[in-house]
């Protein structure tokens, strides 16, 4: 599985973010947030990255099993929708660091990692599920297109240890 970086919150989780940062913490949109390097309002207005041309380029370059656009419901739940019932996707949190906006919402809202992961994309906007022999091609195509991408995890047979369509494992390097 190849992750494509999100540009920010995208279109998911704004109710949670508004509740935590604006209502609960009382922050204003013009508040300068050091971790963001800009105001809260500017961070919240970051345009959503659109992956359609990137995905089309990948389908022309190599074999792709599936794409998962990470929207409301979080990374694991969205990816589980494209994984066949007999398989399980293992997503390694140690392969990336969530953007500061996700860390800020978790910290200010005193939210556990699993709780915030159920709502926000955590910095992964799209996932390409590819055969192992396509990994290098996918990463190369995405790099050429200016899309930050990385190997996110793998797919294994579903068993007692690997139940459900997808799950996050390990810890983020910094969160």
From TrEMBL:
GO molecular function terms here?
A: ATP binding; phosphoribosylamine-glycine ligase activity; phosphoribosylformylglycinamidine cyclo-ligase activity
Quote the InterPro entries the UniProt record gives: PurM-like_C_dom, PurM-like_C_sf, PurM_cligase
Annotated PurM-like C-terminal domain residues: 3-159
**Gene Ontology terms, cellular component aspect?**
cytosol
Keywords from UniProt, A to Z, are: ATP-binding, Ligase, Nucleotide-binding
List, alphabetically, the Pfam families matched: AIRS_C (PF02769)
Reaction(s) the record says it catalyses: 2-formamido-N(1)-(5-O-phospho-beta-D-ribosyl)acetamidine + ATP = 5-amino-1-(5-phospho-beta-D-ribosyl)imidazole + ADP + phosphate + H(+)
Keyword Lipid biosynthesis found: no
Return the broad EC class: ligase
Which residue ranges does UniProt annotate as crossing the membrane?
Answer: none
GO biological process terms on file: 'de novo' IMP biosynthetic process; adenine biosynthetic process
Could you tell me the EC number(s) of this protein?
6.3.3.1
Quote the pathway field.
Purine metabolism; IMP biosynthesis via de novo pathway; 5-amino-1-(5-phospho-D-ribosyl)imidazole from N(2)-formyl-N(1)-(5-phospho-D-ribosyl)glycinamide: step 2/2
Which Gene3D superfamilies does this chain map to?
PurM-like C-terminal domain
Q: Which PANTHER family match?
A: TRIFUNCTIONAL PURINE BIOSYNTHETIC PROTEIN ADENOSINE-3, TRIFUNCTIONAL PURINE BIOSYNTHETIC PROTEIN ADENOSINE-3-RELATED
Q: Give the family per the record.
A: Belongs to the AIR synthase family.
Q: Report what the protein is called.
A: phosphoribosylformylglycinamidine cyclo-ligase
Organism expressing this protein natively:
Kitasatospora cheerisanensis KCTC 2395
């Amino acid at each position: 599985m190849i992750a494509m970086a999100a540009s920010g919150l995208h279109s998911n989780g704004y109710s949670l973010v508004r509740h935590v940062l604006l209502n609960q913490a009382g922050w204003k949109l013009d508040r300068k947030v050091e971790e963001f390097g800009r105001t809260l309002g500017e961070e919240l207005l970051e345009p959503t990255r659109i992956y359609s041309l990137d995905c089309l380029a990948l389908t022309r370059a190599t074999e792709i099993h599936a794409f998962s656009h990470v929207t409301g419901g979080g990374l694991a739940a969205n990816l589980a929708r494209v994984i066949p019932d007999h398989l399980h996707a293992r997503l390694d949190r140690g392969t990336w660091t969530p953007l500061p906006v996700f860390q800020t919402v978790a910290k200010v809202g005193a939210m556990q990692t699993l709780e915030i992961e159920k709502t926000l994309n955590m910095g992964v906007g799209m996932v390409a599920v590819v055969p192992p022999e396509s990994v290098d091609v996918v990463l190369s195509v995405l790099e050429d297109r200016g899309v930050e991408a990385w190997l996110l995890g793998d797919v294994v047979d579903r068993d007692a240890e690997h139940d459900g369509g997808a799950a996050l494992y390990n810890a983020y390097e910094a969160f």
